[in-house]
């Protein structure tokens, strides 16, 4: 085909070019991280397998062959990581529920004691006079608590 018959390429706008560059940067960064991770995992598995093999050699006879440690697939790793995070999340939720329940119980006890104290202080005779004995008892209790 000749150039005349071809449609001219659509020119990208500035925002599209910027977005395209950002995507390329992110892809590059992701690939870089994945390469580092693979390298680390490779080293870790080598070290782990060496440790395990050394331990097995000490236990087993010198004539036995060395066994290799099976590699854990990325799916299994991801699954284990998900389970760990899920367990952490459940523990946090349980702790929050316990804390909330304790606060509710403390508030309930505080309100009950306050209500009881108020009832004692507000008791009156049939003529409407306040009973001083109960007020003196509550003051005495207060003083005893402060001394302890």
From TrEMBL:
It comes from the Eukaryota. Residues 14-23, 31-58, 78-89 have a biased composition (Basic and acidic residues). InterPro entries: Fyv7/TAP26 (IPR013730). Residues 1-89 are annotated as: Disordered. Signal peptide: none annotated. This is Thyroid transcription factor 1-associated 26-like protein. It comes from Brachionus plicatilis. The lineage of its organism: Eukaryota, Metazoa, Spiralia, Gnathifera, Rotifera.
């Amino acid at each position: 085909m000749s150039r005349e018959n071809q449609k001219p390429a659509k020119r990208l706008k500035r925002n599209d070019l910027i977005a395209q560059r950002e995507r390329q940067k992110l892809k590059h960064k992701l690939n870089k991280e994945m390469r580092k991770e693979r390298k680390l995992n490779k080293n870790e598995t080598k070290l782990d397998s060496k440790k395990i093999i050394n331990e097995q050699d000490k236990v087993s006879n010198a004539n036995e062959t060395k066994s290799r440690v099976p590699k854990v697939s990325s799916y299994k790793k991801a699954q284990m990581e998900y389970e760990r995070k899920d367990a952490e999340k459940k523990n946090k939720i349980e702790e929050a529920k316990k804390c909330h329940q304790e606060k509710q119980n403390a508030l309930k006890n505080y309100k009950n004691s306050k209500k009881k104290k108020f009832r004692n202080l507000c008791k009156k005779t049939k003529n409407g006079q306040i009973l001083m004995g109960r007020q003196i008892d509550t003051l005495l209790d207060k003083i005893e608590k402060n001394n302890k």
